[in-house]
Fold this sequence. Notes:
The strands form two sheets. Strands 3-4-6-5-7-8-9-10 form an eight-stranded mixed β-sheet, sandwiched between helices. Strands 1-2 form a two-stranded antiparallel sheet. Among the domains are: 1-50 and 69-122 and 150-180; 342-586, 3-Layer(aba) Sandwich (Rossmann fold), CATH 3.40.50.1820. By secondary structure, it is α/β, with parallel strands linked by helices. Helices cover 50% and strands 8% of the residues. The chain has helices at 6-10, 14-51, 62-115, 137-180, 217-226, 229-238, 240-243, 251-277, 292-295, 301-323, 369-390, 422-440, 456-463, 507-516, 558-567, 579-586; strands spanning 119-120, 126-127, 331-337, 344-349, 357-362, 395-401, 447-453, 472-476, 498-501, 527-528.
Amino acid sequence: MTGVSVGDLRAARPEVLSAVARRVEEHRHTVAGVIEAVLRGRSVALSRAGAAGAMTSHWSGPAASAAAGRFSGLVGELAHLAGDLGVCSQALSHAGLRLRAAVDLLERAGARAQDRGARVTETGSLVLPLRVPTGDPVLDSHEARADALMGAEVAAYLRQAERVATETDLDLARHLLASATGAAAAGDRGVLASLPPPGAGGSGPSGPSPGPSSGDVFANAAWWRSLTSEERGRIIRDHPEWIGPRDGLPPADRDHANRILLDRAQHAAAGRLAALEAGGAVRPDEVGAGGAVVLGLGLSERAAAVELLRRRLDALRAVRGVLSRTDGARRRLLLLDVTGRHPKAAVSIGEIDTAAHVATFVGGFTTTVAGDLDRHDRDLARLRSSAQGMARGDVAMVTWLGYAAPQADEVLSPSRTVISPGVAARAALDLAAFVTGLDAARETPPDQSVLAHSYGSVVLSFALRRPTGIDRVALFGSPGTGGAVRSIVDTGLKPGGFNVLGSIDDPVVASGRVVLGPAAAAVVGARTLSTFAPGGAGSPGAGRTSRGHSDYLKAGSDSAFNLAAVVADRRDATVAESEAERRRKRGR
């Protein structure tokens, strides 16, 4: 049997299936009423026979037995018919919902194409408009990136629409055949049977496949949109591990799943730590590559495993502490991964599901969830307040500690050292998926900026080599781009979208380019923003100047003001680096 094509789906009428389901359900109620009437009639007859028993003898013999058997058989047949009608009604109703979801996916693909001046043909092909070069390579690069993102999104929605329609057709045929032949098993769970795990492919015993659990955020978004609200709720409840780490899904759903995972992880880590401290055996997953032995150089396996679990619990407590903050801003847990040596997490501040502007912060060298999440959350909450004062619309922030940042004790490790872009190149895939997933999860993509500090700017530079949903960036305290970006044309950002801040006495900015160059400020098309206000100690400008490597988010500083303006999409409000500031840097 061939699958349902886009052309077939355009002619589909989900409302007809829903209407038929309602009529079948009405017939089921009618049959149930007949059963009730027959049983009530029998009960009355038996009562009368009992009352008359003293004067007349009860009917017995072959004829009475035959009548009783026929009565029971009739009731059984009616009950079986009602059950078959119930399966039929449920299957039709669910098929109507699923087909409606498939049609919605098709319509969403068409709307996304139309936003870019493209169209989806009757057969499902994407036709792009003729793009006349503008003569500005930066704008042309930006348009090419936007087309690539739109093409990936449209393709994902069309694939999922066809998949859902085909699976729905096959599933409905199976249930209708079973009910028509009276073969529906007693206690049939119908169309709400368990879904297979991500990556399983194909269809489950009854219901759609969740599709591949890859980095394709648009495929993830299309899969989630194709499910009914009941299916989504059941998956979050029963399999939160499918949802929490999955980019492209609504932040509210990821938060719900990740909070379940947070409870599980904290309970498991506390239990394992107690067991080890009581003399229990070290498990294989607590040693080996990335585990306790690597963590605890010079320690026994047991001591190293204990230290690993203590660090894990510290990270989990830090996450829970930030989520419980009562400053009036909603926190959502968008990522939680505490496996291995380096726990990962991402927490948003504000209405991430609806905010017009979303900014993601990427931490740098030695950043950890346990040691830095709380501090970054406080800094970003303050930065959000500043940005909201300038923005046209609401602002949400994200602390993204979603990669294992290099640590001080790993400088000599070839695969983990901070003087190599290797960690950044690998982490960039996750950052690109995360920010693009924020777009994919929304009905209307937000205006997105990414603020990257220190080694995080190297991660961001590699992420910008991929098509992403990023509109603007700010690299501050950057050691360089790791060779990933040499011109803004490489990034697909709009003109003015690549912003750089470096304090006059930041040693990382001054020397980092030697091993991780070229310098971020040397990128063709970069805008350098001020971190320095004239005046010595005690002058009004002293409080506005950022010093060293970790002062960029200081309250009241020019650098914090500039970062807030970047988040708010207020290029007109930013303060450019002055000639005096540039001279100070050249003279250091």
